Amino acid sequence: MKQKYRPIVNSDLIGDYITIELPGFPGAHPKPEPCRIHYLTMGSGEPLLLVHSVGQSIYTWRTLMPKLAESYCVIAIDLPGFGHSDRPLSLNYSMDETANVLVKCLDALGVKKTHALGVTMGAVYTMYAAVKYPDRFMKVIALTPGGITEKMPKKIRRLEGPFGAFFRELYSKKDFEKYMPLFYYDGTLCTDTVIEQYYKTCDDHASRQAIMYAIRNFDEEYALDAIRRAEREFFIIWGDEDRLQPIKRLFELRELLPMSVYHSIRNTGHWMHEEKAAQIAEAADRYIRYTGEAT
């Protein structure tokens, strides 16, 4: 796959579409459902799939994607329920469903095998997909892999609980303005434009529904158990000033996943791919190209 030009990455409809088929599930949605997936490619070389987190879209890669595209054919997708992809009715946003979605996207794009990089929840989705479908994934880079923590705003944590359907409707642009700076170490990067771009693809009932179900059905323990048993190597990167997923979690993962390679980046927060794109691109490239270790 080749993409010679480099489009501006924003929250508008900037890419193309593929259509995958979701299998449905017994009960309310027993029949297969077609789902359009918005995607963008950039660069040339070996494929590198980017997987965003819950509530994000291709926009989150606006800084990192062009840097990775200097060496790879980078493929960024909007996961079902997010960005400009469909909001399917027959998706519970479980680990297995999301792993299946990633592979179906590769099939639709004609990609037999790919490197992959995911961020936070997207990192866990990617790691789980790599152990479930090991013949489809090569090197995998995980940026701050994990889900909701006690450090996150209460309004976000409440989406996991029985009243999540109530709290999902309370989100406003003011909430984004209040909470989004927490995702950065350098708060000046969280400009009004950035907040507007993130909010733009979340400001409707179907999108909030997707966020609620994705958070509610994010089974990190289930995924990490499968990842641990697979004894596969990953490259896990953490920001040392992450306020929402503190770096102590990196040391816990070292015990759980001893075969993986670990790296921390100074003076960066939860969304390190926006703050330290050049460093992450360089570390990822070294990991993919050489011995599996980053220096």
Topology diagram in text:
Elements: E1 2-3, E2 16-22, E3 33-44, E4 47-51, H1 64-68, E5 73-77, H2 95-109, E6 114-119, H3 121-132, E7 137-143, H4 154-157, H5 164-167, H6 173-179, H7 192-200, H8 205-216, H9 220-230, E8 235-239, H10 248-256, E9 261-265, H11 272-275, H12 277-289
Helix pairs in contact: 2-3, 3-9
Characterization of this structure:
By secondary structure, the chain is of the alpha/beta class. It has a single domain (2-149, 219-289), classed as Rossmann fold (3-Layer(aba) Sandwich), CATH 3.40.50. The protein contains 12 helices and 9 strands. Strands 1, 2, 3, 4, 5, 6, 7, 8 and 9 form a 9-stranded mixed β-sheet that branches. The longest helix is centred in the middle third of the chain and has 15 residues, at 95-109. It is globular and about 50 Å long. The model is unreliable at 163-167 (pLDDT under 50).
Number of strands: 9
CATH architecture designation = 3-Layer(aba) Sandwich
Strand content: 15-25%
CATH topology type: Rossmann fold
Order of helices and strands: EEEEHEHEHEHHHHHHEHEHH
Q: For the record, what is the CATH homologous superfamily label? A: Alpha/Beta hydrolase fold, catalytic domain
Uncertain segments: 163-167
End-to-end distance? 29 Å
Characteristic terms for this protein:
18% strand, 36% helix, 295 residues, Rossmann fold, 9 strands, 12 helices, alpha/beta, globular
Summary of the model, kept short:
This protein has a single domain (2-149, 219-289), classed as Alpha/Beta hydrolase fold, catalytic domain (Rossmann fold). The longest helix has 15 residues, at 95-109. It has 12 helices and 9 strands.
